[in-house]
């Protein structure tokens, strides 16, 4: 039984580790060294805590029956997905879809943006996002597809 709920500050260390593991395994191969360092800094527990407290980011987690975190989504400014990761053992299990649907229920925005990794591009398309540019974008060594929902 998977439950979706708002994260607490006590969850941030586990969330940060999940994000780091999945990023390094699936997304980092096309980023430059500068880009990898920038992403790792962004997903660090310290920076995540700052966004949580100072910017009021919405962080939702998916938990299993053992209370382990299997997935997470972070939305900043009420409409931008800044982080979205699911444990790779649970890819294609609808956890990501459920996280996004719950975030939409809470925030009630009519549009969302994301800088999607190349690896996650097809997932975002299935959620209903469209690419704003044909080519992959690059910013500070990080490669992404700018998408809107």
Automatic annotation (TrEMBL):
This is GNAT family N-acetyltransferase. It is an enzyme of class 2 (transferase). SUPFAM superfamilies: Acyl-CoA N-acyltransferases (Nat). Residues 2-149 form the N-acetyltransferase domain. The keyword Acyltransferase applies. Its EC number is 2.3.1.-. PANTHER family: ACETYLTRANSFERASE (PTHR43451:SF1), ACETYLTRANSFERASE (GNAT) FAMILY PROTEIN (PTHR43451). One of its GO terms (molecular function) is acyltransferase activity. The keyword Transferase applies. It comes from Brachyspira innocens. CDD domains: NAT_SF. Gene3D superfamilies: 3.40.630.30. Keywords: Acyltransferase, Transferase.
């Amino acid at each position: 039984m998977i439950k979706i709920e708002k994260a607490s500050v006590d969850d941030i260390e586990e969330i940060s580790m999940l994000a780091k593991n999945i990023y390094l395994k699936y997304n980092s191969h096309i980023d430059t060294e500068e880009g990898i360092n920038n992403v790792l800094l962004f997903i660090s527990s310290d920076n995540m805590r700052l966004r949580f407290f100072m910017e009021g980011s919405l962080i939702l987690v998916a938990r299993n029956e053992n209370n382990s975190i299997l997935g997470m989504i972070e939305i900043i400014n009420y409409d931008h997905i800044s982080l979205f990761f699911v444990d790779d053992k649970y890819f294609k299990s609808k956890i990501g879809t459920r996280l996004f649907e719950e975030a939409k229920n809470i925030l009630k925005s009519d549009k969302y943006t994301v800088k999607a990794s190349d690896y996650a591009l097809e997932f975002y398309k299935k959620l209903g996002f469209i690419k704003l540019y044909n080519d992959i974008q690059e910013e500070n060594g990080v490669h992404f597809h700018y998408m809107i929902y």
